[in-house]
TrEMBL record:
Domain EF-hand positions: 21-56
Organism: Primorskyibacter flagellatus
GO molecular function per UniProt: calcium ion binding
InterPro entries in the record: EF-hand-dom_pair, EF_Hand_1_Ca_BS, EF_hand_dom
Signal sequence annotation: 1-21
SUPFAM superfamilies per record: EF-hand
Protein name: EF hand
């Protein structure tokens, strides 16, 4: 399923070095995220896609992601980096914070968009 692949790609990009996140996401992935088809992915479009990724990964719908929810997508160190408070669960707030940081780091042009 293409959406599942995109979610996996987005999550890996999320936890990869932020400076390379933009290059890690392929042109076709960016086209899917570009919901208004203006040729760029705005922060709002990126956040909306990552919200969908969070919901898809949260199998039990409890609003938190454990290492098991990430399955083989993350190493233990990558998961720990996202789990800011160290409670063994990545909350929606922790996930959203990481998403925002990584988008800002990937936006090398400072335009608020990825392309």
């Amino acid at each position: 399923m293409r959406t599942g692949f995109l979610i996996a790609t987005a999550v890996v990009a999320l936890v990869s070095a932020p400076a390379i996140a933009e290059e890690f996401i392929s042109e076709s992935d960016l086209q899917v995220m570009d919901t208004n088809k203006d040729g760029v992915v705005s922060k709002a479009e990126y956040v909306a896609f990552m919200d969908m990724a969070f919901d898809a990964l949260d199998d039990n719908g409890n609003g938190g992601l454990t290492a098991a929810d990430f399955d083989v997508l993350l190493t233990p160190a990558e998961f720990s980096a996202m789990d800011a408070n160290g409670d063994g669960t990545v909350s929606r707030a922790e996930f959203d914070l990481q998403t925002a940081k990584d988008f800002d780091a990937a936006d090398k042009s400072g335009t608020g968009t990825l392309k």
